[in-house]
Amino acid sequence: MVYSRLAIILTIGFWGTYVITTIIRQYFKGPNTFPFVMQSLGYLLIVTLLTFSALMYLLARQGALHRFSKHVRVPRAEIDRYFEENQPTVTVLIPSYNEEPGVVRKTLLSAALQEYPHLRIVLLVDDPPYPADSATLARLNATRQLTTEITELFAEPRQVCESKLVEFFRDQASSSHVSLAVAQELAELYAWAANWLEQFGSKEQKDDHVGEFFVKDVVGSLSEELRRVHEALMASCSEEVELPVARVSQLYQRLTWIFNAELDVFERKKFASLSHEPNKAMNLNSYIGLMGRTFKQINTPDGPVLMPASGFRSGETVSFPDSEFVLTLDADSILRSGYCLRLVYFMQQPDHARVAVVQTPYSSFRGAATRIERIAGATTDIQHILHQGMTYYNATFWVGANAIIRKSALEDIGETEWVGGFEIRRFIQDRTVIEDTESSVDLAKHNWTLFNYPERLSYSATPPDFGSLIVQRRRWANGGLIILPKLWSLVRDRKRQGNAMSKAEIWLRLNYLASIAWASFGLIFLLAYPIDGRLLSPFVLLAALPYFIAMASDLKYSGYKRSDVFRIYGFNLILLPVNLAGVLKSMQQALSARKIPFARTPKVKERTVSPMLYVISPFIVIGVSLFTLWQGTVQHNWGNAAFAAFNATTAAWALVEFIGIKNTFVDIWLSVLNWLYVPVKKKQSDQEIEPAARVGWQAILYHGDAEGRLPESAVDHLALTERTSYPEEKEVMTS
């Protein structure tokens, strides 16, 4: 912590020294040309912004060190005692789109193995519900069956543990302490549960590092914990200590909590009354908007719709249980067993009544097979530290891979609109592709706070190749500039309310939203523009040195090599065009007021092909750096030459190690082929056109179309209608 404070002081000191000894000094040395003045101001601005980002890294890191040093785990007995008397409900929502069933299965299992009473897990499948391709349909059906398979898998341990709990309550109703025989029976039950988990883990596939992590760190760690309880109970019996009934009751209940999760599947695209916008936010919003309400399902030519049951006197209805908390979890994320208990316990403390979101910023799975996944995972693990520090300054942002959210806070920021006569509710904003970040500002505007729990309890997949990483990082870089006006509005509102935000909070939030933009443009300027030698100074390097030393230390702390700091620098160089593309998309949306489509990160077993622009760009970065090196050498501008040589070396190494020369030329060749060959559109036959002209009495009665033709919106749902609506009239319609 002392070194961290020293790093902050040195960064500010070296930057100030550079401004005084280089920039200001040049103006006093004599007359300067207009181009030199403009170049000096531009260079000073870029250096200042990059130094500011480095300073925010060090500041957040300092906050994280403070929090880590003061964090004390709540004893398990205290947590068990609390949840024996208080059992707030939690609904786990797992949005899924085009995911491999094996990936989703691990996520569902990690959620189902949470030691929490009355946990309800809903898999929100967002795939088209009726695909024509047989392989796609088979994968979708396998995903739908996962909840049933897991319920059946846990049936035996759930029944055994619940029956033992009932038996204990029956026999120990009036006792204050339990006999040694009862304690020994409980110990044997814990041993049985541990053995069951070990056998279950031994049957799980461990074909990659994610599978190994799930078996070892989720199933295995839970089994080991249960076995330690077994050993402790046996030790108490050997010492002939009679345990209190209350504690034994809590231990019995703990076993039932592990296996009693309720699982379900929901597909919003089956219902014409729900939003079908293709993004994760509206998938979550659709289900959250139904929670705590009862509906009647009505079949229409557009497909089934859900109407509030209050408008109908009779008939079957469908209800969606409400809960106090909502846990959102990406379909490629995995939770440790104590996630729900510890985070909900934290939310239930009186001092945290205004905490809307609590999360553990996700970490990466260790043991990645590719170098690029390992280095990308390293940047994720460093972000875990920085997010912890941001909480120290009350500048927390919601990281959407996992979070426990107070549902009343979502209702506080919810918005309602009517589309086509149906109510569409938005709790999580989908205006940008970083919906969690914008919702963080919305919650802060309503005086809610967000919190990062200082433990690593959640893990998420990292893209294993450059092509899929492009999609993820381009999405992450898109949206921050659009949210900036909301941040300024938040600052003004807080000041008007007499609860002004601290400078550290404002700076950290500003850096989080805008640093990718100024860093991308700034690096392009430094790479491509030959800086006048009079503006260069070793103090610029010295101002950046504490940042790189601190990052190297954080990498070592997170289980990586200190030298990975150079690999991350090269990694960021080849990602520079990707980040810039995301920033430009933000500007495009700001100018056009048109929403940018949500691009999901591809998750395929084979390598994702990269667009030609992004595989050529690293060559351009290397070429520009080599040209600057040559130019600096010729002009004896050794500062520029050294910087260019470093950039060319690290970028070339990153190109070879992270993308690969072979993959680069393959992706370029495939991009050229895709550009040369245009797929021929199949001419529609009369039989294919016929459904659009088909006369349907249901469509006339529902839409009121005077010409008796199905409206265009109804044609899109024709296959859905024929499968789900009016089965007795299907033959009449086709004839």
UniProtKB/TrEMBL annotation:
Instruction: Provide the Glycosyltransferase 2-like domain boundaries.
Output: 326-550
Q: Name one Pfam family in it.
A: Glyco_trans_2_3
InterPro entries, per the entry: Glyco_trans_2-like, Glycosyltr_2/OpgH_subfam, Nucleotide-diphossugar_trans
Keywords associated with the record = Glycosyltransferase, Membrane, Transferase, Transmembrane, Transmembrane helix
Q: Which GO terms describe its molecular function?
A: transferase activity
Q: Any idea where this protein resides?
A: Membrane
Q: Does the UniProt entry include the keyword Plastid?
A: no
What membrane topology is annotated for this entry?
Answer: Multi-pass membrane protein
Main location group: membrane
Q: Where are the transmembrane segments?
A: 7-28, 40-60, 510-529, 535-553, 565-584, 612-630
**Superkingdom:** Bacteria
User: Which PANTHER family did the record assign?
Assistant: CELLULOSE SYNTHASE CATALYTIC SUBUNIT A [UDP-FORMING]
Name this protein carries in UniProt:
Glycosyl transferase
